[in-house]
Specification:
Distance between the termini: 15 Å
Shape: globular
Structural class: alpha+beta
Helix content: 25-40%
Number of helices: 2
CATH class: Alpha Beta
Order of helices and strands: EHEEHE
């Protein structure tokens, strides 16, 4: 199992319940590909460096997971489909050297 960090910027136009549902959906995708979520950090609402789809603010989340490499590929496909709610995402390997 590899360690991954998933950084997600969620639209600031969503309510608290909708944002929570988006994060739960992402956690569900991770579990679907036999991954485990070890930690979820909410960094809160921040101003974006540049406008994305006419939005200037977003909520930042960092999700730490342990999963097989196929999870990163499949999760990226699922996040790409969630473009209505997820403004940006990044999946990086967090393996320690």
């Amino acid at each position: 199992m590899n360690k991954y960090e998933v950084a997600v910027v969620v639209s600031a136009n969503l309510t608290d319940e909708e944002r929570a549902a988006v994060i739960e959906q992402i956690k569900g995708y991770i579990a679907k590909y036999q991954g485990t979520v070890t930690e979820v950090e909410e960094w809160g609402k921040k101003r974006l460096a540049y406008e994305i789809r006419k939005e200037v603010e977003g909520y930042y989340y960092f999700i730490q997971t342990e999963a097989e490499p196929v999870m990163a590929v499949e999760l990226e496909k699922d996040l790409r489909i969630m473009q209505e709610t997820v403004l940006r995402y990044l999946i990086v390997s967090a393996d320690e050297k």
